[in-house]
Structure formats: C-alpha cells, structure tokens
Amino acid sequence: AQRKLEEKERFAMLGRISGGIAHEIRNPLNVLRTSAYFLLNAKAPAAEKQHEHLTRIDRQVAIIDSAVTALSDLARMPEPSASSFEITSVLEAILCDMKLAGNIGVEQDFSDDLPLALADEKQLTLVFKNLILNAVEAMSAGGVLRLSASLQSQRVVVVVADNGVGMTPDVVSQITEPFFSTKSRGMGLGLPITKAILEKNRCEMQVESEYGNGTTFSISIPSSGVQS
Ligand code: ADP
Ligand code: MG
C-alpha cells in the first residue's frame, strides 16, 4: 500500500510539474511568435520597431532559458561532491554579486569559532542564493536582511531572516512544492530545488514565518570539525 501511495504521489507531482512547464513556457512562446510574425510580415518596418521586437525576442528567450535551467537543476540534481569550505565566504560572495536596492539593509553576525562546512559548495551556494533572493523579494517595500552563522552541536547553522511580508501557515505548508508561487512572476522552483539539495547534502531546513512580519529560514549543515 505504501508503494501504491508513493506512486500516486509521484504521478501527482509529475502532473504538477508538466502543467507548470507548459504554463511557464507558453507565455514567452506566444510573445516570440507575435514578434517573429511582425518581423516576417511587416512591410518596411521602422528600424525602431524592428529593434523593439528583437529586444523582446531576446528577453523571452532568456526567460525560457532560465525556466529550462531551473527544471534541469531539479530533474537531474547531480550527486553532491562534498568538500570543506567556509560558509561565510559563500554568503559574502552572494551578497557581493547581488545588487541590493537602497531600501534594504544587511546585518551579519558570523561567530568566529566557526568550523568549515562539509557539503557540495556549488549546491549550497545555490541554496543560499535562493533563500537570500526570496528574502529580498519579500522586502520590496524595504527592510533588513539578517544573516548569521554559528556552531550548534557540531553543525554549522546559517540563519537567513527578513522582516518582509511573511507567510500564513497555509503558504508555509506549500513552499517546497514545485511551481507553488505567490509572486506574479515567480516560477516556484527555488525552494523545491533548495529542498532537494539539502536532502542530498544531509542538511536540515527550518522555517518560521509570521504573516506581515517576516520570515526566518535556518539551515543546519554538517561540519568538518576543522576550524576555519
Ligand atoms: P518563487 O520565488 O519563484 O515564488 P520559491 O520556490 O523560491 O518560488 O518560493 C515559493 C514561495 O514561498 C514564494 O512564492 C513565497 O510565497 C514563499 N516564500 C519563500 N520565501 C519567502 C520569504 N522569505 N518571505 C515570504 N514568502 C516567502
Ligand atoms: Mg524564489
């Protein structure tokens, strides 16, 4: 009976995923078709108009490309290759690459007795990119991003907290389902990918959120025991 149930869940998941792909890709395809049609059929279109359509094509291709990349990340999540690394450097590099709006403050609290994290560095980088991006998106009206890293029972615990829009318990219960998103342009793949990576890397995730007040994600990562 257990196997039947799992099979049923897998099919339900497959249905959601294929529905999601169709939805994500159909929109940009329609825009592409319209622009291609214009470029093929318009008699002597103004250079300006041509440029507008080509820019649109370029943007839609980028949207399809990121949807496909996210899906293949999810579908064939490679086996992790663990190494020891400084999680704080990963967090700092992500912040450095991200252009944060002026209305977003950042507070960091990294304890200095931190051992090295033991996991796949690239995969964990993707996890924290997703979490930090979500935190920032939850604070479109401004706020403070709080990042902390500490040692707790031999594991490195990283906390990503925001004081943004927060979530209701109902939303919290769905956030790791593929294609679940409350955003108008959200793909809903960030947290499913995050969850898959964390499971493969023997990491754990906890979420606390209060609607209207903010959200805190805590990630616990195995440590190498060696101080960084
Ligand atoms: P996306 O960001 O594309 O919507 P995710 O899988 O990254 O997809 O997140 C799924 C949903 O979880 C979001 O649409 C949002 O409703 C909720 N969520 C995730 N992180 C936060 C956060 N820090 N604050 C509020 N809501 C969040
Ligand atoms: Mg996201």
TrEMBL record:
Keyword Endoplasmic reticulum: no
Domain Histidine kinase: 20-225
Gene Ontology MF, one: kinase activity
Catalytic activity: ATP + protein L-histidine = ADP + protein N-phospho-L-histidine
Alphabetically ordered keywords of this record: ATP-binding, Coiled coil, Kinase, Nucleotide-binding, Phosphoprotein, Transferase, Two-component regulatory system
Domain of life: Bacteria
EC number: 2.7.13.3
Protein name in the entry: histidine kinase
Organism: Neorhodopirellula lusitana
Included stretch of the parent chain: 152 to 379 of 379
